[in-house]
Specification:
With 248 residues, the chain is an alpha/beta fold. The chain has a single domain, classed as 3-Layer(aba) Sandwich (Rossmann fold). Helix content is 32%, strand content 19%. It is built from nine helices and eight strands. The protein has an eight-stranded mixed beta sheet, with helices on both faces. Strand 2, helix 3 and strand 3 form a beta-alpha-beta unit. The longest helix has 15 residues. It is globular and about 55 Å long.
């Protein structure tokens, strides 16, 4: 099934959901979009008045959010359709978009944002070395293999992912390139946490038996917001994603 973004501004071509990146304005994708957005919001609160580069910015929604607090944001992506969409859709005086490889960005900035993409990279160490040379702080996220892939599998079935990490592996990847690495996890909160609890006591059997699955999730998924996720430290094995705050 093919999904395109709904209700785009005039003159802005909608993007198709391919699985390579998440998109706003696709109701069926709202869970994943809000999960990503929660991390962007957390970072934006820490980037006030800073010069920020958002590497692999995709559709551009995260760069636009960062620009709400930052002094300057540059969104970089190699995909021509994503770049054109972002350029046309998001207009702020302190926001610009560049088409290019993330490995080649080398201008000094105050912060680098690089979310949910390190698992796509053929040479992650080379890229992390470059990121560490660009800014004193980098925010780098990736999904937790333990909660994304089937038990015991080396990775999920996402064809865009080359490698997925558990917490110890992720920390070991990052530490050689930075002086300090703080690892946080993304977890369900509010109604998503209640949904987790309900699944644990048998809700999945009930909604199937009562033939409520489609009408329930047709309403539940679009209602998810970024506040239904939280970032925290602690035991990270059950985290959905990891956010590394890397400093040099």
């Amino acid at each position: 099934m093919h999904y395109l973004q709904d209700d785009q501004p005039e003159g802005v071509p909608p993007l198709e959901l391919t699985g390579e990146r998440t998109l706003p304005d696709v109701p069926e994708e709202n869970y994943w979009f809000r999960r990503h957005l929660a991390v962007y919001e957390w970072i934006a609160a820490r980037c006030a008045d800073k010069r920020v580069v958002d590497l692999a910015c995709g559709e551009g929604y995260g760069s636009d959010l960062l620009a709400g607090t930052a002094a300057e944001v540059i969104g970089v992506d190699a995909n021509p359709e994503a770049h054109e969409h972002a350029r046309l859709r998001y207009g702020r005086s302190n926001l610009s978009f560049e088409r290019g490889l993330v490995e080649e960005f080398d201008r000094p900035m105050d912060a680098v944002v690089f979310l949910q993409t390190i698992e796509h990279m053929h040479e992650p160490d080379r890229l992390l070395e470059r990121i560490g040379s660009v800014a004193p702080v980098a925010y780098v996220s990736t999904p937790n293999r333990l909660t994304l892939a089937p038990p015991g599998a080396e990775k999920s079935d996402n064809p865009w992912h080359l490698r997925e990490y558990e917490a110890g592996e992720y920390r070991a990847l990052l530490q050689p390139h930075f002086d300090r690495v703080e690892l946080l996890g993304v977890f369900h909160a509010r109604k998503l946490r209640l949904h987790e609890i309900a699944i644990g006591v048998g809700w999945d059997r009930v909604h199937r038996a009562l033939r409520l699955t489609k009408p329930f999730y047709d309403r539940f998924i679009p209602a998810i917001s970024s506040s239904d996720f939280k970032l925290r430290g602690g035991d990270l094995d059950s985290a959905l994603d990891f956010l590394a705050v890397c400093r040099r």
